[in-house]
Amino acid sequence: MHATGSEPGTGAGSSPWPAPADLAELIRSSRSVVALTGAGISVPSGIPDFRSPGTGLWEKVDPMEVAHIDAFRADPVRFWSFYGQRFAALGDKRPNDAHRALAALEQRGLLDAVITQNIDMLHRKAGTRELVEVHGSIARCTCPRCGASVALDEVRSKLDDSSDGVPRCAPCAQALKPDVVLFGEMLPRAALERASELCEQAQLLLCIGSSLEVRPVAGLPLLTQRAGGTVAIVTQGPTPLDDIAEVRLHGDVVDELQALLAAV
Ligand code: ZN
User: What is the Å distance from ligand 1's center to 172 Cα?
Assistant: First the structure.
């Protein structure tokens, strides 16, 4: 116990802060470990969290308006004038040591799967094999008419060649839609079911870099808890689920996961 002399009622300061070594011990002793990641894990790769005010990509536009399924349907030229930049900006980003730490844990047999809210492909690039992308990813686009699936490289060359900045399906001339969940769209059912199943079965769920505010993903840790599993949260800033977390690490995600990897 640490004795700082502070009054009770100061929230997280009321108990000693756990170290990555405590989390490492939990990982070693858990039969099944699953990670759930959010925007915070990709911030060190230069991808701003769009909920952080005044940062980059979303600064000048309202994402709820521009990246909405209705906007795509109503005005694909305007949609792609925004989303084309997003593709270019995200497609060149590299994974960081936090992504790589999770891939290393999987390789060592200490992590079953990563569930991510991110669409940036950085877990794949880092080498994670069992990956559930609940908001989709920029890896592919689909033709809404014929269902043709087009890979990112081809979409980017279509973007370069297009006179109006819209990548189209060659046979249909229809604007392609990114395989990401836009505002106003449901999450892909299969991915969400797989994520729910993983969280129910997990003895330990590591929530990393997610503010756990965006439903339905924010409800996944509760599935773990109700099934008798343990929830750990590694993220800067408060989350609505801090009270149910057995381990709560507040530091930089790269530092915390590097320390964790060194301790397992
Ligand atoms: Zn088509």
Answer: 4
Please give the CATH number for the structural domain made up of 1-47+95-135+186-264.
Answer: 3.40.50.1220
Q: What is the CATH number of domain 49-92+137-180?
A: 3.30.1600.10
Residues 6 or more apart in contact with residue 262 via CB below 8 angstroms: 20
Whether residue 135 lies in the annotated active site: yes
pTM score, whole prediction? 0.88
Tell me the per-residue pLDDT of 88-140, one tens digit each, with 9 for 90 and over.
888 889 999 999 999 999 999 999 999 999 999 999 999 999 999 999 999 99
Average confidence (pLDDT) over 211-220: 90
- CB atoms within 5 A of ion ligand 1 belong to 143, 145-146, 148, 169, 172
Catalytic residue from among 2, 99, 123, 135 = 135
237 phi-psi bin (left φ>0, alpha ψ -120 to 50, beta other): left
